[in-house]
Amino acid sequence: MKRKQIINITAVFIIAIGVITAVFQMTRSVSVSATDEPVEVWLTLADESKLLNQEAGLQFQAGSGMATNIITIDETQLYQQFEGAGAAMTESSAWLIMDNLPEAERNTLMANLFTGNGDGIHLSYVRVPMGASDFALSSYTYNDMPAGQTDPTLANFSVAHDEAYIIPALQQARDLNPQLRLMGTPWSAPAWMKDNENLNAGSLQSQYYDAFANYHVKFVEAYASYGLPIDSLTPQNEPEHESNSYPSMAMSAEEQKVFVRDHLGPAIENAGLNTRLLLLDHNWDLANYPLSILADPDAYDYVDGTAFHGYGGDVGAQTAVHNAYPEKGVWFTECSGGGWATDFADNMTWNMHNLVIGNFRNYGKSLLLWNLALDENDGPQNGGCGNCRGVVTINQTTNAVEYNVEYYVLGHVAKFVDPGAYRIDSTAFIEGGPENVAFHNPDGSIVLIVHATEATTFDVAWQGQYINYSLPAQGTVTFKWDGGSTPTADNVLQEFETEGTYYDVWHATSSLSNTARFGTYSLQMVGTVDPWHTVAAELNNSPVDATGFSEMCFWVLDTARSDEGIAFKLVDDHDVSQEIWSNDLPTPIRTVQNEWVQMCFDVAAFTEVDLSAIDHVEFTSYWDGPYLYDHITYTIPEITIEKTVTVRNHPVQPGDVVTYTVEVSNAGTAVAENLHITDTLPTYVTGANLDVTETISAGESVSYTIPASVALNTPWNSIITNTAYFNHTSGQGSDEAVFTTALIAANVFQDFELLPNVTYEAYNATVTITDTVVHDGDKAMAMVGEDIWHRGGVYPYNGPRDLTGYNYICYWVYDAFENTPNNTMSLIMVDQSGSRQESWSDSPEQADNPNPETTQYTWVPMCFSLTAYDLVDLSQVASLEFNTYWGGPYYFDEVTLTDVPLSGERVYLPIISK
């Protein structure tokens, strides 16, 4: 799941409604559209006399317009992609829709919400609470347990509760709009995972981080079984707010970082899910929360972006997070209307200013409001907000459905802007002008949303044309028209969509033709005096560095005959040229009459030109034609390398095998030839070095498995780093695999050398690891009592540990308590089930103990007979606890297992972990 998307950014900033935006530089094709292009107009007025009404259409006319305010549309400047608009399908919403409305009324409402037909607004994104929220029929999670019981393996996990209303509602929505995205968000972990054992308020206990991570994974898997794929998850709703009145849970930024980095991210990845992971899911004024998590490189790898709510702060926080991490997305996921704001016009203005125009101009990829539907009493409620308003209101008595202001806010976006659209550049007015935001849909249509706080007249200028429009105060209008082209890949060198991209070279007449392989136009070439004729094509951003290209390709349509060759010439910036005929290629390519044929040429074959500076290309043919040329592109390999290491078993015997795997992939559009791959094994690791030259086809990968042995003389706790490399004309890269080694005696229960998580504070004790007072090695455990009785715990290596093959467990203790020279202590055994048993150092059953008491300022061994522990499962010992009366400090080291007190040689084993 560790996905990284890199987007080049140019530091160009525009002030817009108090917001700073940065421009993405992306390549796309642009066609010249004819004048009189029809424009759809959809209008909402402040007095509600028109609510998303379709007005008479407009038509572009030649010119740039004369209005004071001109909104100029530039679809060559692309920003973030739009993913959808919608609201939350809370249990309250689903119950009202599925249980309260008769079938006919329900079907009408769902069609209005999730289709674009008639009055429908075509919602495309829905947020799904994972269990109860403050709008539910009751408080529940998917893994509730009786008080005092836990379920760390989630054996009782079930989403059956949602089968009554939520799942059927979502299934119907997906049937109506198959593009519908779903986002999952928990309001609380199950109570048994929390420190207060309550769904309301409290925090997640760290020992249940794995369980809560798997809770997310099981939710995604369960919903998928109902045909409901979950596109994205957030770890926790509003983690900086906990309430005693409804399900909620606090989670600090540090806690969320650890949870995402070490638990949820790996759980999603290990489950093979494509579900994306978003941070925060809380207000704009908490921007430092996700920034602190993204600053951790390991957490960063698992994160796709940040989710914001609109109840606090300013929408400009979205740009602050975007500018800090532009490769990570920004989503807007919650805001509600309510009884505190009832004026339709003012609500429309606030929503358009902040949640639509402000949100999208600040890199928002989504617009999600709170409850999709509530009743006439703003419920059903489960604590929390008492006067929130739904997108629609369903009257439980009359079954009447009221479409609220939020419905029209969403409608001005979702009905017209399709998932996958790019926000494009449009004129931003600092103050007083018409606020606006524009998008380019995947089908080529352009959408412009405009809101006016005051009555205004403005022009919309686009490709040398304009329309003029007057919008009343607090009115909102959405325009939509055919943009004529769609974004293309970055590997396009010329598309012939505008004049000036071609010229005649020899006995040819060239022009644009509206018969095209892609887009609107192609280059037409007709021979004149002589059968031989040539035209030239300019390249985007010439001179072009083609040294990393594998092939250059173009499409040709021969209208006159078949089986003809085309000459393709590269001309560099020094006017040096080289020509190759398609019929002379190793695999000849010839034309087919009235069919588009793609011809690709190996760039490496052009040895006579400066490939680092190609100025233009030329096409030559023999017959008169006409010939049509379109879409000059290049292909490149995109090579990645991944290095992993595994161990055959754990722990392994000295000299046992570790296995490195090196995988090299080509995600590009061309074959990678002469790809050099190397991997030289490091010190203390012996095996075969890797040094190969490969050819990898586009979309394919190769992997190498390298068995290696860890030397017996590897130093204690060595960190061994091994790096694999690739080198190719398209670039070079590397990836590391790291593991640590330590020599641990076979009979050592714990010696505190391999950290972390080897000790715990059991009762009234402060427990630390020290490197100043040690018996052997580099570290020992220190314990100081906070009360007279105190206990410190220690976990075994690779626990739980089987002690059944031994007679005694021994440890070394150093008593530094200054007031008493000698002290007894007990050793408590804790098994995997939680059963406990205690034995004292001076008790009769410990008669073999060589030191029933400590000796002040001296290391002494204490040994406890395992026969004294008959009430615990010695085959599954989870921890030990040292218990004593006086305050200390005490130091403990070298907890070992023996046949007789302090006897038996230690057999060292290397413990190897990735």
Descriptive overview:
The strands form eleven sheets. The chain has a ten-stranded mixed beta sheet, covered by helices on one side. Strands 7-8-9-10-11-12-13-15 form an eight-stranded parallel beta barrel, surrounded by seven helices. Strands 26, 28, 29, 31, 34 and 36 form a six-stranded antiparallel beta sheet that branches. The protein is flat, with a radius of gyration of 35 Å. Helices cover 12% and strands 39% of the residues. It has 914 residues and is mostly beta strands. It has five domains: 9-82 and 422-482, Golgi alpha-mannosidase II (Immunoglobulin-like, Sandwich); 84-414, TIM Barrel; 492-634, Jelly Rolls; 639-742, Immunoglobulin-like (Sandwich); 746-913, Galactose-binding domain-like (Jelly Rolls). It is built from ten helices and 56 strands. Helix 2 (103-114) packs across helix 3, helix 4 crosses helix 5 (253-270) and helix 9 packs parallel to helix 10 (405-414).
